[in-house]
Write a structure and sequence with these properties.
Blueprint lengths: L1 H23 L4 H4 L4 E5 L3 E7 L9 E6 L2 E14 L2 E14 L10 E5 L2 E7 L17
Length: 139
Amino acid sequence: MLQHRDSRRQLADLFDWAESLPSMFPWQAAAMRGVRIEEFAESDRYVVRAELPGLDPDKDIKVEVANGMLTIAASRQQEEHEGGHSEFHYGALNRRVMLPDGADEAAVKATYAAGILEVTVPISPKSVEGRTIAIERKE
């Protein structure tokens, strides 16, 4: 289990590294931009807040949870027509976050207000106490 968790952490770190690329290659910033987030854990919940201004949460934002990962995806498509001129803008943003141990994936809730998406994940208390394992003698 620990090895699997370490692999997921490495994968999450890789995504974080990839999101830093736009600052190194500004000409690709629009295509590679990630969702800006704030995350924190409290005693009984894990919270992720994402800045997604000007989007319609019913059409433009998708939140998924699977295998210990939270995925926030957002897309925007906008068309403007003025006289004989038309212009369109589009883009897609994605962010993946590894959930902490004890996360209750079945009880995740999301709200959207004033351009901020807030995802709340309940965390089950976990035992931190160790125990001694009896050793059976086989002959």
